[in-house]
Amino acid sequence: xxxxxxxxxxxxxxxxxxxxxxxxxxxxxxxxxxxxxxxxxxxxxxxxxxxxxxxxxxxxxxxxxxxxxxxxx
Length: 73
Prior knowledge:
By secondary structure, the chain is an all-alpha fold. It is about 75% helix and about 0% strand.
């Protein structure tokens, strides 16, 4: 099992996160975190879209709000 977890470590540290090594040594905080800001902006756009769609379903009355709408209720 040790080799399995070392393989996962190698995948993430040496392959998937190598672009972050370039940004780590930059002196400007904003440029060092540019990838993180891109992810934050994508998340905010996705959340705004999702909330707009939910409001649209609610305004059209397509949402089934009865107690028996879902089996776990």
